[in-house]
């Protein structure tokens, strides 16, 4: 086997086969493929969407106000139907499943993160498939991951997978949205996720999907920085899961893992807490940070955006608004607005204290491919 531990994310588009209901005939086929791999010794973690779609189906497509509470109602009803379906379908292959419903808050809190990891490891070592979805019924916007592409990437980091497979309704990442451009070409291999690639990835083409290719690229970027390979492929391609895991043929879009994965602290900065604001930096600072591996000093900061305390994760952006990276700020927003553009030696005089020369130290920063 080419891979030891695999996270497989199934989008609503795959689970419903483009209809308004769960396509159980297709779900059982996917369960079969996963069971084949498990019997061959591959450890499988499933990240499944589909709760909201299943909720609508179970309640016979009620006309509800488009509010958060009603989406949560649908997710609460649908999640139990979804896990019931998976439990029944995997049981046909003699496999038990265990459910983990997570929010961003679970992944940001170190103790809950480690607990979730222990649970996943315990399930895997008992040959039970951990099945993960966002806990939509309780998650508010503030504590949501928001889409299962990002959730599956975080799950892949959490459980130390070596492959993340994102299955969807397209053959992979195309050079434009194939729903809008019939001449769009499949991109078979991606070495670098940069802004030009991000521009190709649009939102969801359907009312049921969340995020489209844009969130799949975000997920791929998080995973590959942690040394995890990623494949985006069609959930309806014959034997897709088995072929990808066995590297039998080139299926979908393959993203190489970064050779020297980030140490776990930096993985945490990249995939952990939501960015609470941003630091806009000048060209000189951008060059120092990107090309020279330097810390971010106050002198190169043009302004701070958002309200944030010291110790929170921020985006670092250039003057054109491009995200260059993420890092933990040693100063709060109010402090940064007073010291930006000033030399580090002046910090103590201006603020009356200082927390070090760097606003974002190199060790607290992850630079992205631009
Ligand atoms: N460059 C692109 N390549 C492929 N698909 C794209 C691209 N840009 C946007 N999309 C859209 O992304 C959709 C898949 O994402 P989404 O609807 O969220 O599905 P899922 O439920 O599988 O997550 C496709 O149906 C397609 O319309
Ligand atoms: N958690 C939601 C799915 C969110 C989501 O990202 O959906 P999708 O884009 O279809 O993978 C649900 O179970 O309905």
TrEMBL record:
Record key words, sorted: Amino-acid biosynthesis, ATP-binding, Cytoplasm, Kinase, Nucleotide-binding, Proline biosynthesis, Transferase
Transmembrane annotation, as ranges: none
Chain ranges of the PUA domain: 277-360
Predominant localisation class: cytoplasm
Pfam families, alphabetized: AA_kinase, PUA
Pathway: Amino-acid biosynthesis; L-proline biosynthesis; L-glutamate 5-semialdehyde from L-glutamate: step 1/2
Enzyme Commission number(s) from the entry: 2.7.2.11
Binding site for ATP: 9, 168-169, 210-216
InterPro entries: AceGlu_kinase-like_sf, Asp/Glu/Uridylate_kinase, G5K_ProB, Glu/AcGlu_kinase, Glu_5kinase, Glu_5kinase/COase_Synthase, Glutamate_5-kinase_CS, PUA
An annotated GO cellular component: cytosol
Subcellular location: Cytoplasm
Catalytic activity: L-glutamate + ATP = L-glutamyl 5-phosphate + ADP
One BP term from GO: L-proline biosynthetic process
Lineage: superkingdom: Bacteria
Residues engaged in binding substrate: 49, 136, 148
GO MF entry, a single one: RNA binding
Similarity comment: Belongs to the glutamate 5-kinase family.
Role according to the record: Catalyzes the transfer of a phosphate group to glutamate to form L-glutamate 5-phosphate.
UniProt protein name: Glutamate 5-kinase
């Amino acid at each position: 086997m080419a891979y030891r531990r695999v996270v497989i994310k199934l989008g609503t588009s795959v689970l419903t086969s483009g209809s308004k209901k769960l396509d159980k005939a297709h779900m059982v086929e996917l369960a079969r493929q996963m069971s084949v791999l498990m019997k061959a010794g591959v450890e499988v973690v499933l990240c499944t969407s589909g709760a909201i779609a299943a909720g609508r189906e179970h309640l016979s497509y009620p006309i509800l106000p488009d509010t958060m509470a009603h989406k949560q109602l649908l997710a609460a009803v649908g999640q139990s139907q979804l896990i019931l379906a998976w439990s029944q379908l995997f049981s046909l292959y003699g496999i038990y499943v265990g459910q983990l419903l997570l929010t961003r808050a679970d992944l940001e809190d170190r103790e809950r993160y480690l607990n979730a990891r222990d649970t996943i490891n315990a399930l895997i070592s008992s040959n039970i498939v951990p099945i993960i979805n966002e806990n939509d019924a309780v998650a508010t916007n503030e504590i949501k991951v928001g889409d299962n592409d990002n959730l599956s990437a975080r799950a892949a980091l959490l459980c130390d997978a070596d492959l993340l497979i994102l299955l969807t309704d397209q053959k992979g990442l195309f050079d434009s949205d194939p729903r809008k451009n019939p001449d769009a070409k499949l991109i078979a291999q991606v070495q670098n996720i940069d802004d030009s690639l991000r521009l190709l990835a649009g939102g969801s083409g359907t009312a049921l999907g969340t995020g489209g290719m844009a969130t799949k690229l975000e997920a791929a970027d998080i995973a590959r920085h942690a040394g995890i390979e990623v494949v985006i492929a069609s959930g309806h391609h014959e034997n897709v899961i088995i072929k990808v895991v066995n590297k039998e043929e080139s299926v979908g879009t393959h993203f190489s893992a970064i050779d020297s994965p980030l140490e776990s602290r930096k993985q945490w900065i990249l995939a952990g807490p939501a960015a609470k604001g941003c630091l806009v930096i000048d060209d000189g600072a951008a060059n120092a940070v990107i090309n020279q591996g330097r810390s971010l000093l106050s002198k190169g900061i043009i302004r701070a955006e958002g309200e944030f305390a010291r110790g929170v994760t921020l985006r670092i952006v250039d003057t054109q608004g491009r995200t260059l990276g993420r890092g933990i700020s040693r100063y709060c927003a109010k402090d940064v607005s007073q010291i930006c553009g000033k030399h580090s030696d002046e910090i103590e005089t201006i603020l009356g204290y200082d927390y070090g020369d760097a606003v974002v130290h190199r060790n607290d920063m992850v630079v992205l491919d631009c």
